[in-house]
Design goal:
With about 230 residues, the chain is an alpha+beta fold. It has one domain. The chain is built from three helices and twelve strands; from the N terminus they run ββαβββββαβββαββ. The strands form four sheets. Strands 3-4-5-6-7 form a five-stranded antiparallel β-sheet, covered by helices on one side. The mean pLDDT is about 85.
């Protein structure tokens, strides 16, 4: 598995805005608001201080720059690339697609939204939103959301990502993601939802070619692909 080594740039997270956001009459900070128990039902319907996620756009740009300098990929920016998402988003600001020079490696499309947030389309059948929700009940912070974004992007590039479709009699979607540094993993499985049947068929055919998982992105070296 090609992974960045000596001579290749090391990803460094840019500094997030030094702003502390609080919510609620008792001014509890995000990330620890429900330590004493679960959130109240009404918190699921409230989105306070979405500006706390503003730094995610800078994180996404830093990841794109890192990948472009490390791996043999094509980079294309065009708002129309937001069409890679499984479901359209009403407030797209930018879209950037990274395509590795290896057919067996998963492409990534970064869609910058006005929330502010980022949605990453990984491979052929999965969209990952950052933040995952943004409501007060979920209690996400810019730091925890950046951790998840970096785990996905760097894990995909390192070859730690797999998709399966169709799975079982219900034809579910499935993914598995391993962190590039071996620090953890995650997985998910569910119904495809309202995805065009033609797109599902094309995805199923492509995933048969990567049945053991998407491969690692080839490293860049003196303008050449390294495998």
């Amino acid at each position: 598995m090609p992974v960045p080594a000596s001579g290749h740039p090391v990803y460094i997270r840019p500094s997030l805005p030094d702003v502390r956001y609080f919510s609620g009459a008792d001014a509890r900070r995000y990330g620890g608001r429900w330590d004493g128990g679960g959130p109240p039902q009404e918190a699921y319907e409230v989105v306070s201080n979405p500006g706390r996620f503003a730094g995610l756009h800078a994180i996404a740009d830093a990841l794109i720059s890192h990948l472009e300098g490390t791996y043999a990929i094509d980079v294309r920016e065009d708002p129309a690339l937001a069409g890679d998402l499984l479901l359209p988003h009403p407030d797209v600001r930018r879209a950037v697609r990274l395509t590795p020079h290896h057919a067996g490696a998963a492409p990534l499309t970064f869609v910058f939204t006005g929330f502010p947030g980022v949605i990453v389309h990984a491979g052929v059948l999965h969209d990952f939103p950052f933040p995952a929700c943004g409501c007060d009940a979920c209690d996400e912070t810019s730091e925890s959301t950046a951790d998840r974004l970096e785990m996905l992007v760097l894990g995909v590039a390192a070859g730690g990502y797999a998709e399966r479709y169709p799975v079982g009699r219900r034809h579910q979607l499935e993914y598995v993601l391993a962190a590039a540094d071996g620090s953890g993993s995650e997985s998910g499985c569910g119904e495809p939802g309202p995805i065009d049947g033609g797109r599902l068929g094309e995805a199923a055919a492509r995933l048969r070619d990567v049945a053991v998982g998407w491969g690692a992105w080839p490293l860049r070296k003196a303008g050449r692909m390294v495998t």
